[in-house]
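Field reference: sequence -> structure
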Amino acid sequence: MQPTRLARLLLFPLALLASRGYAQAPILEISGANFRPLPIAIPAPQALSDDARPAAASFDEALVLDATAAAIFQVLDRKSFLADAREGFTAASITFSRWADVGADALVKVQLAVDGTSLRGEMRLFSVASGKEELRLVHVVPLSEPRKLAHFFADALYRHYTREPGPFQTHLAFIHRVGKNREIWLSAWDGRDAVVIAKDGLNVLPAVAPDGNSVAFTSYRSGKPDLYRERPGAPPVLLVSAGQMATGIAYAPDGKHIAYSLAQGDGTNIWMANPDGTDAHAVTDTSYFINSSPSWAPDGKRLAIVSTRAGSPQLYLLSLDNPKDPRRLTFQGNYNQTPSWSPRGDLIAFTARDERNAFDLFTVNVDTGKVNRLTQDQGNNSEPSFSPNGRLIVFTSTRNGPPQLFVMTADGKNQMALPMERGEFDTADWGP
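Structure field:
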C-alpha cells in the first residue's frame, strides 16, 4: 500500500530536518575498547486514538527489540522513569532534568495515528543534555504492519548516531522444522512477519536473493539435491540440476553471479553461474576432495570456501583470478565449516567443533588469521550469517533446548533470542 498524499508531502520536509540532525549529532564509534553504549530512554508510544492502540503494542515491542539488539544503545528500564507519563511531545513541554536524573543521554518520543488503512508515525529524538530536538521523522505504513514502521525508525536512529546503514529493514530466510519436513521461510530481520517459501519435503540452505523478496535454496523435491529460487505465492524456478547434488547457493554482492558446490564423480567442486543458472562453469577442480559452502567477499573477487584437501574440513580463501591456489585460513581444530564473510570485509564467521564435540562460533581475521571465539558453554551454536551492515550476526543455538535463532554483535556480545513463534528454526541467512 502506498502512503497517502498527505504522508508523501510530509516526508520530504521532515527528511530535510533529519539530515540537519545528522550533521550535528556526535558519531558513536562502535568498535574499540572505549566504546560505551549510549543511554537512551524510549517511553511507550503515544496512541492518538483508540484504533491506534493495538498497533502501538506491536510497534513498541519491535522498536525496543531493535534498539536493544543494535548494541549501540543502553535502553533504560521504563520502571526507572521519573517524568510525568502525560508529558508533551515537543522540547518546550519536556522536563529534561527528569530524564537526566535516570541517566538518559537521549530521549525518543513517538506518536501514532490511524489514517484509514494506514498507520502514521512521528518520531522525535532529543538530546537530554541540551534539551534540543536532534531528529524528527514522519513515516506511513499499512495499518497491518506496525513492526515495519518500528524498523524504519530504528534504522533512522542507528544511522543518526553511526552514519552507517541500520540492519533492521532487512530480511531473514531460515528453515522451519515441521516433523520430517524442512520448510523455507522469509521474514523481517527479527523472524517476525514470516511467509512460507517452500513448504513440503526437505528444503535446506536458504539464501536471500538480492531483491530481498525471494529465496534460493537446496531442495530434494526431485529425489536429489537441486537448486531452486522461489518467492511467496509463485511457482519454484529450477536454477541448477546437475551431477549427483548441487547445494549451498550464494549470491555475489552485485547479484550478477551465484556460487554453489556440485558433486560429480569422486569430488565436489565450487561452480559459478549467472543468477538464472546459465553459463555454469567450475571454479575449483580437485578429485577426491570436497569443496563446499562458498561465501563471497564484499569485493566480489574472492570466495571463502570449506575444503577437505588437507584431510579435514578447513576454511580457504579462493581468488577468482587464481582459483587453483587457494590460501588456507584456519589451522586450529579438525572441523571448521559454514563460513560467512562480513560485508565489512575484515572477518569471516564460521562454525567449529571443539575438543568436547560441541559446536561453537568463531571469527577469523582475513588478513591476520587471528581467531576469536564468540560462543562457549551454551549448547551447540552454528550457522552464522552477518547482517548486511556487518555489525551483527544471526545464528542457530540449542542453548534453550530445540534449535532457535539468536543474534549477537560481531564480537560475540549482546547475545539474545529472536522473538519468533514456538517451533524449531535454524540455518538463517541474513539478506537485504
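Note: Confidence is low (pLDDT under 50) at residues 1-23.
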